[in-house]
């Protein structure tokens, strides 16, 4: 879309000639997420819609207990230490951020009085600062008022490396200063087009200064309130048993009218996904279960005549096959898959393209992921509408064979292709996980037809995903030819998701394989586009740059996307949970209610 | 006697040290690390992972870490969970009541079934009762708990809707309702575990009884004109119980250790489920503490079994 056209559209929205929804739909058509479209409007001077989730109840409480079943229970309740989503979900019952992402991808103010925009003076035109205003009169569960000091403290606490918070990168590269008792200003070191990160969403939850001030830095683990949260959320803390149970009761002083609906909340942990689905969908013992990693077939069977149903939230999680650009079988200076080598087979783009043609995404979807997956050609998948329109995929053994012929791989006597006396043999690794092994089998079969001998390898997940320097089987060492796993998209912005593959981030022995660019793919155009996008303040140009990055990865076949995965939840028929593919399941907990 | 106990306790010290060393080294050499979940999270920079590893001393050499652990253990500090960031002993104590209640009840149920059935079957070997009891026992210990557990859930929860299959630790009731609810939710796990244990124990009791019942002194007792009940209970059972006591004593640590599979199926927050989730998340201090406590209990109950022998059979002298 032309820049000028966009500007005139923003003008139309400002003057009320075009409604927001139409604007967002127009942008979606060119591949922009709703959150991004909203931020464009905000920077363009149009206030973000304050669009809370639909909430009909007219009084606080009276909804009885809300029973949640998390098959991996929360193990700690400090949002700054929450490693997994299970811990973030548990913390979020009691702690709140300034704003969270709602179902439509809008920012929904929680502790903030309003969402910053250019009009209300919250955003600066150079994208280097944000002013947040706190809602007046919000109290911690112990009765103390929430002030700007708490916000400043959270930044100090999280950004101190000695505290060892997992939220550290959310709060680094910026400074937070107090303007008055209810106002803070975030100053970014560099222009930051995606400003809604610090104090927003799961890592944005705010802990009280008066209880944690003494436990900043090295003493962080001694804080008694790590296990006894005192927050601002809709429910007050009652009891916590790590891995088993989180219990809360209604907060009668909650700062939103008529909320929450339920009188108490219980989050039970443990067990497995299938029986969790059964307890919600079939017997109705629980109201809601999280993360239904269950075969679609099983869910469909449970849903027949059951008491609950499955819900799907669209985010950007992508299951893909990565291609190794370096040679895993040659050692250079004691390092396998060294940058100084080139993969003997896969460095030929035609072989990579042939591989991409051999991934039968329709069969994978049909046989394995069902309603929980969407076939895609893109590595970067926003919600439904975020699709780079320039890419495509197909499954064709004939075309793949033709490409391999062109590349000089001729059929051998045993059906395996060879070139210069070398067999076309690939090692394909992934983590041990039912769907992944089935996907491997489907791909191996297609490869066999095309004359590629694929050896399958599965590594225990705890090893595959570990950062253990001594172990050769980790995904980041990538001592195989191709590998498959999933990378979740943790926020509605591609910056983090795409930055990984910048050439400065290559995983090598030198950085103990902690560089996130594990395919060891180096592309100058990609680097330039990422660098430009990081400081680009014009939202349309920025989005274009990320689409370009995605397309470059597609052209080079760095990744063969297998499935765009959706979050699957199980819910009682009467429950109306507010879910978003851009947020954790409990991020809009205050808006949950029951109907009938 | 007291000298014997003291000597046995002294011998236990080196064996416990050896056990702890083996456990520690195996866990330290095992693949994976507690911060693996951070690895695929693009929000967490590698420096934070490194800082966390340094904080929890994961980068020290193994022997240093072992000495630190041993020293802390001697001071009553069981360690600090990487994952929950809390003390391991609190974590274990939180889980203990559920385990003791469920697994303990299952053991009692097993004994209540196994001893009468085993004894009665032995008094009338190859009778109809014995045949039926034997068949059921074989069926019982051929069916693994993960199978019977799910079968029970399907029958009693899903189809009949009589019992809940998610074990909750916070029942919202008081007085008699609380007790009834506690019993109601424990019926299935206790039955699954208890019947499984009872099956093998019945076989064991029966064969121990059969060994004794054929001895001459039993015939003598009968010849003296003692009644059947008195012969069986006072003369046969007391001697037949010696191997049974060993079996039960060795199973007692399991009461504390929990039952991993059953706890997982019914979501019982016991030690077994703590152990498995800690293993899966590589939370080594918790795994270490649980397994070590388990080792101590095995040693202790072995000793208790030996002491009990002396009481059951005065001919066994303890020196």
From TrEMBL, chain A:
Family statement: Belongs to the bacterial solute-binding protein 5 family.
Alphabetized InterPro entries for the sequence: Peptide/Ni-bd, SBP_5, SBP_5_dom, TAT_signal
Record key words, sorted: Membrane, Signal, Transmembrane, Transmembrane helix, Transport
Domain Solute-binding protein family: 123-470
Gene Ontology annotations for the cellular component aspect, listed alphabetically: ATP-binding cassette (ABC) transporter complex; outer membrane-bounded periplasmic space
One Gene Ontology term of the molecular function aspect: peptide transmembrane transporter activity
GO BP: any one term: peptide transport
Superkingdom of the source species: Bacteria
Transmembrane segments: 27-49
PROSITE patterns in the record: TAT (PS51318)
Species for this entry: Bradyrhizobium rifense
Entry protein name: Peptide ABC transporter substrate-binding protein
Name of a matching Pfam family: SBP_bac_5
Subcellular localization(s) per the UniProt record: Periplasm
From TrEMBL, chain B:
UniProt entry tagged with the keyword Transcription regulation: no
Domain (ABC transmembrane type-1) ranges: 96-305
GO cellular component: plasma membrane
Gene3D superfamilies: MetI-like
Alphabetical list of Pfam families matching this protein: BPD_transp_1, BPD_transp_1_N
Keyword terms, alphabetized: Cell membrane, Membrane, Transmembrane, Transmembrane helix, Transport
Major location (coarse): membrane
Signal peptide: none
Entry's transmembrane regions: 100-123, 135-156, 176-196, 240-266, 286-312
GO biological process, one term: transmembrane transport
Membrane topology: Multi-pass membrane protein
Subcellular compartments: Cell membrane
InterPro entries in the cross-refs: BPD_transp_1_N, MetI-like, MetI-like_sf
Keyword S-adenosyl-L-methionine among UniProt keywords: no
Sequence similarity: Belongs to the binding-protein-dependent transport system permease family.
Name under which the protein is recorded: ABC transporter permease
Species annotation: Bradyrhizobium rifense
């Amino acid at each position: 879309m032309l820049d000028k056209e966009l500007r005139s559209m923003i003008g139309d929205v400002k003057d009320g000639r075009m409604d927001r929804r139409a604007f967002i739909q127009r942008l979606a058509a060119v591949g922009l997420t709703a959150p991004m479209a909203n931020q464009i409007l905000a920077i363009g001077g149009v206030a973000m819609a304050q669009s809370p989730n639909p909430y009909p109840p007219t009084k606080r409480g009276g909804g009885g207990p809300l029973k949640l079943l998390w098959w991996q229970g929360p193990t700690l309740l400090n949002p700054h230490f929450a490693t997994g989503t299970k811990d973030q979900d548990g913390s979020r019952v009691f702690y709140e951020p300034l704003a969270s992402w709602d179902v439509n991808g809008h920012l929904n103010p929680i502790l903030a009085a309003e969402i910053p925009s250019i009009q209300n003076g919250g955003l600066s035109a150079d994208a280097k600062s944000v002013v947040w205003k706190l809602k007046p009169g919000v109290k911690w569960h112990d009765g103390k008022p929430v002030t700007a000091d708490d916000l400043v403290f959270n930044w100090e606490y999280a950004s101190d490396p000695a505290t060892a918070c997992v939220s550290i990168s959310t709060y680094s590269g910026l400074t937070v200063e107090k303007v008055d008792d209810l106002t803070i200003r975030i100053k970014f070191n560099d222009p930051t087009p995606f400003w809604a990160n610090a104090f927003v969403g799961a890592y944005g939850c705010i802990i009280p200064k008066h209880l944690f001030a003494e436990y900043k830095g090295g003493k962080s683990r001694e804080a008694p309130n790590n296990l006894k949260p005192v927050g601002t959320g809709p429910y007050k803390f009652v009891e916590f048993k790590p891995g088993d149970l989180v219990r809360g009761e209604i907060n009668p002083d909650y700062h939103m009218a008529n909320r929450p609906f339920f009188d108490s909340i219980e989050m039970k942990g443990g067990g497995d996904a299938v029986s969790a689905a059964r307890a919600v969908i079939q017997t109705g013992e629980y109201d809601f279960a999280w993360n239904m990693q269950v075969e679609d077939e099983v869910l469909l069977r449970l849903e027949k005549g059951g008491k609950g149903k499955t819900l799907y939230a669209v985010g950007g999680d992508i299951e893909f096959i990565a291609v190794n650009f370096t040679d895993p079988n040659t050692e250079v200076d004691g390092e396998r898959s060294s940058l100084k080598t080139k993969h003997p087979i896969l460095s030929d783009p035609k072989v990579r393209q042939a591989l991409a043609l051999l991934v039968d995404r329709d069969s994978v979807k049909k046989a394995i992921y069902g309603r929980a997956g969407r076939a895609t050609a893109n590595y970067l998948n926003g919600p439904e509408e975020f699709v780079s329109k320039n890419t495509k995929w197909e499954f064709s053994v004939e075309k793949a064979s033709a490409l391999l012929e062109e590349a000089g791989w001729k059929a051998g006597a045993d059906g395996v292709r060879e070139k210069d006396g070398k067999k076309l043999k690939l090692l394909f690794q992934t983590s041990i996980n039912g769907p992944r092994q089935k996907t491997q089998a489907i791909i191996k079969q297609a490869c066999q037809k095309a004359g590629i001998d694929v050896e399958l390898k599965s590594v225990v997940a705890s090893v595959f995903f570990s950062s253990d320097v001594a172990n050769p089987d980790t995904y980041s060492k990538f001592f195989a030819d191709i590998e498959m796993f999933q990378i979740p998209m943790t926020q509605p912005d591609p910056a983090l998701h795409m930055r990984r593959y910048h050439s400065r981030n290559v995983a090598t022995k030198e950085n103990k394989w902690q560089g996130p660019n594990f395919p060891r793919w180096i592309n100058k155009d990609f680097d330039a586009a990422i660098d430009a996008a990081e400081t680009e303040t014009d939202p349309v140009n920025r989005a274009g740059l990320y689409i370009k990055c995605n397309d470059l990865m597609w052209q080079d076949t760095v990744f063969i996307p297998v499935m765009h995965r959706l979050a699957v939840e199980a819910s009682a028929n009467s429950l109306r949970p507010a879910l978003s593919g851009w947020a954790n399941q409990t991020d809009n907990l205050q808006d949950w209610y029951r109907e009938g | 006697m007291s000298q014997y106990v003291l000597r046995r306790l002294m011998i236990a010290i080196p064996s416990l040290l050896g056990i702890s060393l083996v456990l520690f080294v195996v866990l330290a050499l095992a693949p994976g690390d507690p911060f693996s979940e951070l690895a695929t999270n693009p929000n967490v920079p590698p420096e934070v992972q490194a800082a966390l590893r340094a904080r929890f001393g994961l980068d020290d050499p193994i022997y240093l870490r072992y000495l630190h652990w041993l020293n802390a253990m001697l001071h009553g500090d069981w360690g600090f969970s990487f994952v929950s960031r809390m003390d391991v002993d609190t974590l274990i104590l939180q889980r203990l009541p559920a385990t003791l209640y469920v697994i303990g009840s299952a053991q009692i149920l097993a004994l209540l079934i196994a001893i009468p059935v085993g004894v009665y079957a032995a008094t009338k070997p190859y009778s109809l009762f014995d045949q039926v009891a034997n068949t059921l026992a074989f069926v019982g210990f051929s069916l693994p708990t993960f199978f019977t557990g799910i079968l029970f859930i399907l029958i009693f929860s899903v189809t009949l809707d009589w019992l809940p299959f998610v074990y909750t630790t916070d029942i919202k009731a008081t007085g008699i309702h609380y007790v009834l609810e506690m019993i109601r939710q424990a019926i299935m796990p206790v039955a699954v575990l208890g019947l499984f244990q009872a099956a093998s124990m019945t076989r064991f009791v029966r064969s121990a009884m059969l060994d004794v019942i054929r001895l001459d002194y039993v015939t003598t007792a009968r010849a003296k004109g003692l009644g059947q009940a008195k012969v069986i209970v006072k003369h046969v059972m007391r001697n037949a119980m010696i191997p049974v006591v060993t079996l039960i004593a060795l199973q007692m640590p399991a009461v504390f250790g929990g039952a991993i599979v059953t706890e997982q199926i019914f979501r019982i927050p016991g030690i077994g489920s703590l152990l498995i989730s800690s293993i899966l998340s590589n939370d080594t201090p918790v795994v270490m503490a649980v397994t070590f406590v388990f080792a101590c209990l095995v040693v202790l109950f072995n000793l208790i079994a030996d002491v009990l022998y002396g009481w059951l059979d005065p001919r066994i002298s303890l020196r």
